[in-house]
């Protein structure tokens, strides 16, 4: 019997799935969007095998969750298709599949900023709101799955940038609290570098390579300075002192405080650099917490670091809202099975298990206040607050072109190819036609 609850409802009743999860813990279209025939808005029908398309799973835990589903649904087996680490590559492969109307992809794990683009192009099936209870999810995550007030994706994991820092080195330098401002962070670096243990430690790292991470770094830097890439009127707003101050922070940080190889480090490269013990402060996602605290010998900083809110120019900074949503391809054959699998994977029991196993941020609000979770992951209150105040990347149906423009111009500024003023002026000009209504 199929026992799939509403998301946010009661746990799965199946003893088989519960046992499997417990074991794993130890180890530019119209309004209607996609239906069963690529945009008809029809009911989700069809049962049988499906695929789950997602980025690279570094935790090794996803397969265990899928195994739990498969043991309960022998006639509706799920096969994972892993795409590359880099979000740009993931998005491109999903778009290639959609533009050929291929049924090879069933359930898609989408970056939260892709919903509008995919829904507008009728690459997603519209989801039935009456079958999905979003009331228990963090408010900030719910709108990321909607386009024109219709539901196209279910929030399954959230994200917000946080400051990882070497607590042991700060304490040895006589510093009691993590920095709240950029100036405090630089001053802390100088104190730590006077220690024998801190001589060879780099100060700070946030991603400044020419990838999606550059867009994220630009959003956080500009928003922390009081500006915005896209204004409230939906138009680019880069000709402001705040935008200039934000990008100048990135330029100066890369030049004076980051590792020499900063522009070549991606998310995983930054994680490995921090875990090698070579870094004092790092802007990073929650997933790093479990990996950096691993006792298998892969991390030299296990038990030596902590997490705090991002600093800003005059106080706490602004984090970017990240995360992933689950959607059904408009061209999938077995959409009913796909919807049930989304309910399973985004349900409270699965999100709890995923948090415990991987430290990835859930979308279920109650998990952030659960005493067991907070004891294991002390940063959860910090993360919950960061998500609540986080700012999204530009939400647009031409997101691919928008983020490519941001990445290119900001990379030129950070690497010194262009002055900050020129890069911002050029970006303003590129974004104007891309964001025109």
TrEMBL record:
InterPro entries associated with the record: SBP
Endpoints of the signal sequence: 1-29
Query: Does the record bear Hydrolase in its keywords?
Result: no
Kindly state which keywords UniProt assigns to this record, in alphabetical order: Signal, Transport
One GO molecular function term of this record is:
maltose binding
| CDD domains reported for this sequence | PBP2_TMBP
Keyword set includes rRNA-binding: no
Question: What is any one of the record's Gene Ontology cellular component terms?
Answer: ATP-binding cassette (ABC) transporter complex, substrate-binding subunit-containing
Q: Name one Pfam family in it.
A: SBP_bac_1
Give the record's GO biological process terms: maltodextrin transmembrane transport; maltose transport
Entry's family note: Belongs to the bacterial solute-binding protein 1 family.
Write down what this protein is called: ABC transporter substrate-binding protein
Q: Which organism is it from?
A: Actinomadura darangshiensis
